[in-house]
Amino acid sequence: MAERGRFDGRGVIVTGAGQGIGRAIAERFARDGGGVLAADLNGDAVETLASELRSAGLRAIGYHVDVTDPAAVRGMVARAVAEFGGVDVLVNNAGVLRQSKIMATTPEEWDLVMAVNVKGVFLCSQAVHDSMVARGGGRIVHMASLAGRATSTLGGAHYSTSKAAVLGLMRHMAREWARDGITSNAVSPGMVDTPMARSGADATRMAEIVADIPLRRLAEPSEIANLVCFLASDEAAYITGASVDIHGGELIIA
Ligand SMILES: NC(=O)c1ccc[n+]([C@@H]2O[C@H](COP(=O)([O-])OP(=O)(O)OC[C@H]3O[C@@H](n4cnc5c(N)ncnc54)[C@H](O)[C@@H]3O)[C@@H](O)[C@H]2O)c1
Fold first, then answer.
1. Cβ-contact 26, 54 below 8 angstroms
2. Domain tally for the chain?
3. Is 6 within the bounds of a domain?
């Protein structure tokens, strides 16, 4: 069995946990004792992850979900409550990136990026609220991006807009749900070494990007997971309404 950890007895939902950052976050929560519902549009990927974690003696289930579908999102939360007794932590990580320039962006592509990156965050947060209240509070961590703090390296205007919207939603949620004992914070990474980042740039472009990062490398998904888990931990009880940058020095501002 797992050693006792800081998330023992907690129910955790991580969206977009099939690969990349979300997978690292789900693994980290499970290693730290949490019961993890790993959710993704790619149901096979999260089933595989969950069975690997269970084989290691950890608590995890995979769940197929489209975060843009309100009924599916409610089903996801009901499953987590049934499995773990409640939801204490939600990580809104699922996201899509598209690279089209403004003049080449179709209304359909705009809507897709907004639906997954913004509406999905709204729906998942709304769906866990009552369960968190029933537990006396909770932690919501949203995956924003440097794109929402400045502009995107790889993504188009719709991607930057969606991540700026996540930061607005995060702040409003922090104020509105503080009385419910729920904290709402965001993590804003620069470039992270994931399939999303690798598929967006060839080797030459990637070398240029790395040369512009003061720490001269991409972040590892596990480094983002460390920060997310801190914001979801008891140690971060007084942090709410914050966006924490993690970008190797790419955007050093006040
Ligand atoms: N990789 C980076 O450089 C970087 C930087 C800043 C922010 N981010 C953000 O971090 C998050 C994770 O990024 P990543 O690089 O790991 O991406 P990724 O593309 O490698 O993984 C994203 C996951 O989200 C899932 N997903 C997509 N649409 C979904 C939907 N409708 N419902 C449920 N799941 C869905 C995908 O199936 C995939 O498993 C995203 O929100 C992304 O915008 C990434």
1. no
2. 1
3. no
Residue 6 and residue 81 in contact, taking contact as beta carbons nearer than 8 Å: no
In a domain, 83, yes or no: yes
Does residue 5 belong to any structural domain of this protein?
Answer: no
For a substitution probing ligand 1, which of 40, 91, 118 has the most ligand atoms within 8 Å of its CB? 40
User: What confidence score (pLDDT) does residue 1 get?
Assistant: 45
- Can you tell me the distance from the alpha carbon of 37 to that of 34, in angstroms, rounded to the nearest whole number? 9
Helix, strand, coil percent content, the chain, rounded in steps of 5: 50, 15, 35
Question: Which residues form the domain of 116?
Answer: 11-192+221-241
pTM score, whole prediction: 0.98
Task: Check: CB of residue 15 under 8 Å from CB of residue 93.
Answer: yes
> How many Å apart are CA 111 and CA 85, to the nearest integer?
35
Residue 165 maps to which CATH number?
3.40.50.720
- The pLDDT of residue 219 is 98
159 catalytic per annotation: yes
SS3 for 242? coil
Instruction: Return the best residue to mutate from 15, 41, 98 for the ligand 1 pocket (most ligand atoms within 8 A of CB).
Output: 41
Residues of the chain under the 50 pLDDT cut: 1-3
Decide if 70 is inside a domain: yes
